[in-house]
Amino acid sequence: MTPALQLDDVTISYGRHVVVERASFVVEEHDFAAIIGPNGGGKTTLLKAILGLLPLSGGAIRIFGNPPEEGRDLIGYVPQFHTFDFSFPITVSEMILQSRLPKNAGLFRRYREEDYQAMENALDQIGLSGLMDHPIADLSGGQQQRAIIARALAGEPRLLILDEPTVYIDAPAEEQFFSMIEALRESMAVIIVTHDISAISGKVNRIACLNRRLYTHGDASITDGMLTSVYGCPVDLIAHGVPHRVLRHHGEGYDD
Amino acid sequence: MMIEILEYGFFQNAIIAGLIAAVACGIVGSFVVVRRMVATSGGISHAAFGGVGLGFFLGIDPLIGAVIFTIGAAFILWHLNIRELQETDTITGAVWATGMALGIIFVAITPGYAPDLFSYLFGNILLVPSTDIILMALLLVVILAVVIALYNQLVAVTFDPEYARVMGLPVPGLTLVLFLLIALTIVPLISVVGIILVIALLTLPAATARLFTHSLRTMMASAILIGVGTVLIGIALSYAFDLPSGATIILAGAAIYGGFLAGRHLTR
Question: Domain named ABC transporter: which ranges (chain A) (predicted)?
């Protein structure tokens, strides 16, 4: 089976500054993967390359076997929450329908019945059906975040990529968020990109740590050794760790 | 008194010019306000003065010169925008001032009497000739056709350019379309309120509409109505009190905006 995402020795640099060095990683269909790493570790850069917005200096990226420019039609992208202008005068349904645009490019094209259907399905999946005609400005923070996920789902993706999705989610909403992701895995692979290792659910089945180099660990547990090499100083992060996370074996004295 | 004046040809021209400007402003001004392209619009509109000067120098309609210059400025600023250069802000200011400077030089080297620049800088809606009305109407038709043809794409690019790129939309091309729409909209406005005041008429009705609308469509429709009201009130007051028309229209627009803003604060 073709993997949903395959990174093969990917190197990305700005001028002479290497940001991502020889990263290799595979995400299969129906996987729930996490790419974690400190801010400035190259996560955003790698994400942009996967989305086909940045050229590679070496290696290859394949999305269901295709290069990013072609494969990204199959990606549902959920950008960081804070990049949004939620005061923009647009309703939830109008925003979500935008994901149908690639299928409706050209002059004088209007959305068709199947586009409205995809929009309503996406809202159903994340439980916002009643808010279709509301302006996005009127939604709560959590609802706005789900609306952005619905926008990605309306494109009927087979790979969903979420950039720092848990930043604005509080603890009770987090359970809900991860069970939603579980449900989505039936029809797609999901990748979470985050700097916050406490935000990663035990349901993640594949993890990569990125700090210029990419460290992978097949069975989705993070070892102290990995963290030390990625973050340099793991103490802070582990001290913030919450029970039932992926960090099964904390170092001596870090346990709470 | 107001009724009789409507029978004069120049007054009819003034009303038609005002309505064309209001429609163009309502639509394009809404994009300018939500995408925060006010500085870009300022650069493009002031560069138009170079075209006005060129028009005098070559002995052609100054508004045609203005079209050439606003389109040229739109291309330059678009180029900066898509390359995301740090200097965008500085160069926008340079385009702004260079256009004005070129206009002054062109006028200075034009032989004969110095033309009346005042009406181009501050507008004189009562002096709009019929030929300009035809040019303005043509520009409005082009603006309407482009916005209707590309409406969904233009909204997507305005709302979230990065996501539009990920979706594979031609974001640089659509951004150019937005900038050219601004360039074309500014030309009719020059006759109505003048180069210096264009920004205000472009943005005030749209900014007012934004206070109470929640979708771009209703924002545009409301901005058009507010723009029509602004222009008509401005013309009436300017006639009644013998005040300069362009400045009176802008003050009417600012007063309407202030009124809605105050109303919103009071009702919250």
Answer: 5-243
Amino acid residing at B169: L
Interface membership of A72 toward B (CB under 8 Å) = yes
Cα-to-chain-centroid distance, residue A112: 28
Is residue A141 domain-resident? no
Mean pLDDT, each 10-residue run in order, chain B (268 residues): 67 91 96 93 95 94 93 94 80 92 93 81 87 92 96 94 90 95 93 90 96 94 97 93 93 96 87
Residue at A139 is within a domain: no
Is A108 in the B-facing interface, judged by CB distances under 8 Å? yes
Is B167 in Cβ contact with A101 (below 8 Å)? yes
Do the beta carbons of residue B156 and residue B167 sit within 8 Å?
A: yes
- DSSP SS3 for A34: strand
Give me the interface pTM, i.e. the ipTM.
0.84
Reported pTM: 0.87
Query: How far is A200 from A36, CA to CA, in rounded Å?
Result: 9
Q: How far apart are CA A68 and CA A49, in angstroms?
A: 8
- Residue of chain A minimizing CA distance to B159: A88
Q: Report the CATH number that the domain containing residue A35 is assigned in CATH.
A: 3.40.50.300
- Give the pair of three-digit tokens for residue A62: 């394949």
Residue A114 lies in a domain: no
Which residues of chain B lie closer than 8 angstroms to A155, CB-CB? Answer: 167
Residues 143..172 of A with a Cβ closer than 8 Å to B: which? 151, 155
